[in-house]
Design a protein that fits this description.
binds magnesium ion; 7-stranded mixed sheet; Rossmann fold; Ribosomal Protein L25, Chain P; 26% helix; 3 domains; binds adenosine-5'-triphosphate; single chain
Length: 563
């Protein structure tokens, strides 16, 4: 939005709204809604819809956006999900103030609207069974047939519907249907179901109802009751728009919202369907909805993604009418850009190799002043203890280094970040020939990282004092799937076979600088030269933060693919 000096989002929906406002439509109002079904946790696709709906309300001065729970399927819905959804929307940075609604709050009204349709001869109770209903519906190329129950009298229909409500019929015995056109080319118009019988408790209305309205019926009426002006949904609802309009045209409602469809977000190497995400959770493929590998909002949060980065991502991918597959790298770049500005730099060694600095006095500890951010003095600095024994990264040493390896090798000199130059004098190995320790010497004249004689070293490596190190665990996360489109039609059934077995790697003996001992949950850091990390919000405890790798410093996937 304008306040961040970003270009004003402008897409085809903005153009429609601009025209509507110019023409005085809806009395100059703009009212959108985000309508999740509380049957799972929100994912990155929902973030796109949230940013669109709430974003428009922010962009236009008169704009309002409702949070509405579209809860018309009692079997799958739960208050746990509704609460989590509200939390996620708030965490993303949006506020619906007092405009929180539930479709289930409209059940009485929806029932009355259905009765009105019956009275107007536009709805009937149908007793065809499921198989017959399928048969009568026809196909895309053949018209359907009228149900023999289609011509029941208004009185009979009113009576039967009332008895449906009272629970006199079994599930599946009958439904209420709209009387539209069994020969309509659009299948959604072939007498769609309005109410079906479900003898199950609803998480909000308990056992008050045993008939529940269908989505298409409840959704448009809920929009209209709330004064929504633009009802934005994904492209799969395009074929439902005529029905949306049909219901609203038949009934007496305060307004007639305009349904506008946009392309859903498809993100490569993951799945964005609540049903499939639920399956991953149920199968134990991930540790829960908040597993940091999940594309859910709570998963991304736990991994260390920021709301700002996710909103920036939604801005960048834009709103269009055509389906595309967005590369995960686009999202990761937004995360990197945000974290680069906002995180403190710290030192952490993931695969420790011990270094003894032989000419450094035993027992001496120097507290080195190290700034938290190279370009942002406001972030302050911390003291970094330096002592005779330190850890460096195993990868930063090679016994027989090639020419271009500017880190440590026998006889070579490198700079220790914020500290001194050291030279490797001796390599200690175990019986298996593995390098277990390096003996080095330091140049006391190079404190702070420069030699007074002007001699240069090419490499700077990170390190942590052995005695002071915080030993803890990090978790390295990678793409959840090895396939860009694991759930494409091509492999609809076997999509779980494409799970990436290396999507989570735990390293349990990392050595981090001691300032991190007090790092609080959900704080993010850049471990210099390594990656961005975030303190896990579940498994960490006081004095022992556990770190999740949020994102690498560079896009190594793009490089791999280029090769
Ligand atoms: P799922 O397929 O994951 O179950 P859904 O569409 O059934 O998603 P809802 O809770 O009904 O989930 O969605 C709430 C809103 O979010 C709807 O307006 C829907 O169109 C939108 N939405 C869902 N998935 C995406 C997506 N991938 N991209 C953009 N918007 C989405
Ligand atoms: Mg849905």
């Amino acid at each position: 939005m304008a306040e961040n000096n970003k270009p004003e989002a402008s897409h085809f929906i903005c153009h429609i709204i601009n025209d509507d406002l110019k023409n005085g439509k809806n009395d100059g109002r703009l009212h959108t809604r985000f309508p999740p079904e509380p049957n799972g946790y929100l994912h990155v696709g929902h973030a796109k819809s949230i940013c669109l709906n709430f974003g428009l309300a922010e962009k236009y001065e008169q704009g309002l956006c409702n949070l509405r729970f579209d809860d018309t399927n009692p079997e799958k819905e739960d208050i746990e999900y509704a609460d989590a959804i509200a939390n996620d929307v708030r965490w993303l940075g949006f506020d619906w103030q007092d405009r929180e609604f539930f479709a289930s709050d409209y059940y009485d009204k929806l029932y009355e609207f259905a009765v009105q349709l019956i009275k107007d001869g536009k709805a009937y109770v149908d007793h065809l069974n499921a198989e017959q209903t399928r048969e009568y519906r026809g196909t895309l190329t053949e018209p359907g047939k009228d149900s023999p129950y289609r011509f029941r009298s208004v009185e009979e229909n009113l009576d039967l519907f009332e008895r449906m409500k009272r629970g006199e019929f079994a599930e599946g015995e009958c439904v209420l249907r709209a009387k539209i056109d069994m020969a309509a080319p659009n299948m959604n118009m072939r007498d769609p179901t309005i109410y079906r019988i479900r003898k199950v408790s609803h998480y909000r209305t308990a056992d008050k109802w045993c008939i529940y309205p269908m989505y298409d019926f409840a959704h448009c009426i809920s929009d209209a009751l709330e004064g929504v002006t633009h009802s934005l949904c994904t492209l799969e609802f395009e074929d439902h728009r005529v029905l949306y309009d049909w219901y609203l045209d038949q009934l007496d409602l305060p307004c007639h919202p305009q349904q506008i469809e946009f392309a859903r977000l498809n993100l490569a190497y993951t799945v964005t369907s609540k049903r499939k995400l639920n399956e991953l959770v149920k199968n134990g493929d991930v540790s829960g909805w908040d597993d940091p590998r999940m594309p859910t909002i709570i998963g991304m949060r736990r991994r260390g993604y920021t709301p700002e980065a996710i909103r920036d991502f939604c801005d960048r991918i834009g709103i269009t009418k055509s389906d595309t597959l967005i590369d995960m790298g686009v999202l990761e770049n937004c995360v990197r850009e945000d974290l680069d500005k906002t995180t403190k730099r710290v030192l952490g060694v993931l695969n420790p190799l011990k270094v003894v600095i032989e000419n450094y006095p035993e027992g001496k500890v120097e507290q080195l002043d190290a700034p938290y951010h190279p370009n942002n003095p406001d972030m302050g600095s911390r003291e970094l203890p330096f002592a005779r024994e330190i850890y460096i990264e195993q990868d930063d040493f090679m016994e027989d280094p090639p020419k271009k390896f500017f880190r440590l090798g026998p006889g070579r000199e490198v700079r220790l970040r914020y500290a001194y130059f050291i030279t490797c004098n001796e390599v200690i190995k175990n019986d298996d020939g593995e390098v277990i320790e390096l003996h080095c010497s330091y140049d006391p004249e190079t404190k702070g990282g420069n030699a007074p004689d002007g001699r240069k070293v090419k490499g700077t490596i990170h390190w942590v004092s052995c005695e002071h190190a915080l030993q803890t665990e990090v978790r390295l996360f990678d793409r959840l799937f090895t396939e860009p489109t694991p759930d494409s039609n091509k492999h609809e059934k076997e999509w779980r076979e494409f799970l990436n077995p290396e999507s989570k790697v735990v390293i349990s003996n990392v050595m981090l600088e001691p300032s991190l001992m007090s790092a609080e949950k959900e704080t993010r850091f850049q471990f210099e030269r390594t990656a961005y990390f975030c303190v896990d919000n579940k498994d960490s405890f006081d004095g022992k933060p556990i770190f999740n790798r949020t994102v690498t410093l560079r896009d190594s996937w793009a490089k791999l693919q280029a090769r």
